[in-house]
Design a protein that fits this description.
Largest interface: A-B, 24 and 28 residues
Largest sheet of chain A: 6 strands, mixed
Radius of gyration of chain B: 14 Å
Radius of gyration of chain A: 13 Å
Strand content of chain A: over 45%
Distance between the termini of chain B: 36 Å
Number of helices of chain B: 0
Order of helices and strands of chain B: EEEEEEEEEEE
Largest sheet of chain B: 7 strands, mixed
Structural class of chain A: mainly beta
Order of helices and strands of chain A: EEEEEEEEEEE
Shape of chain B: globular
Helix content of chain A: under 10%
Strand content of chain B: over 45%
Oligomer: heterodimer
Structural class of chain B: mainly beta
Distance between the termini of chain A: 41 Å
Number of strands of chain B: 11
Number of strands of chain A: 11
């Protein structure tokens, strides 16, 4: 069956360290994968999109990798700050023009 | 630009009651979506509309109907609410263009928290 998993429900990290979040998928062949940030009580906000032919994408302190052989995407936040605390969702192209979302990882950056 | 707006923000219904969730976007996007979000389950697609005049079922359409009233507005109707429909509902829209080079990026509304007792 098709499945998207994100490494853990919650991740605690010390301020200034690099946070690494994992998104694994089974029985999908996505051409695109996206990452979103969601704050409590709000809708998700788009962060980055990576295509299947791109190994890595960067935006400021964010870096995303996409390994179609491992069926995995890694999302890194370098020099993490308490303001980075949020839930991060991965979403991959499921069928048609629609995306399927993972359950999310709640990141807490401790001062 | 307001982006994607949703009304109401909160709603409590009794089992069997009906209601319509409203969504509007002012970004001239072709595609619009309705999701529900439940703890530990991520966002699940209920219905989507690829363009004005078309609607299609998503992953969890049972118990819901939608109307794409025009390019801006996409409503979700619960005809006979059930406790299993207690959830947070998000509307989203997206652009299908090549410029900027971010196809399928979705813009979400603030959500509607629905409780069915």
């Amino acid at each position: 069956s098709q499945k998207i998993e994100q490494n853990s429900e919650a991740l605690n990290i010390q301020e200034g360290k690099t946070a690494t979040l994992t998104c694994n998928y089974t029985n999908y062949s996505p051409a695109y994968l996206q990452w979103y940030r969601q704050d409590p009580g709000r809708g998700p906000v788009f962060l980055l999109l990576i295509r299947e032919n791109e190994k890595e994408k960067r935006k400021e302190r964010l870096k995303v990798t996409f390994d179609t052989t491992l069926k995995q995407s890694l999302f890194h936040i370098t020099a993490s700050q308490p303001a980075d605390s949020a839930t991060y969702l991965c979403a991959l192209e499921g069928y048609g023009q629609n995306f399927v979302f993972g359950p999310g990882t709640r990141l807490s950056v401790l001062p | 630009n307001a982006g994607v707006t949703q009304t109401p923000k909160f709603q409590v219904l009794k089992t069997g009651q009906s209601m319509t969730l409203q969504c509007a976007q002012d970004m001239n996007h072709n595609s619009m979506y309705w999701y529900r979000q439940d703890p530990g389950m991520g966002l699940r697609l209920i219905y989507y509309s690829a363009s004005e005049g078309t609607t299609d079922k998503g992953e969890v359409p049972n118990g819901y109907n939608v109307s794409r009233l025009n390019k801006r507005e996409f409503s979700l109707r619960l005809e006979s609410a059930a406790p299993s429909q207690t959830s947070v509902y998000f509307c989203a829209s997206s652009v299908m263009g090549s410029s900027p080079p971010t196809p399928y990026e979705q813009y979400f509304g603030p959500g509607t928290r629905l409780t069915v007792t």
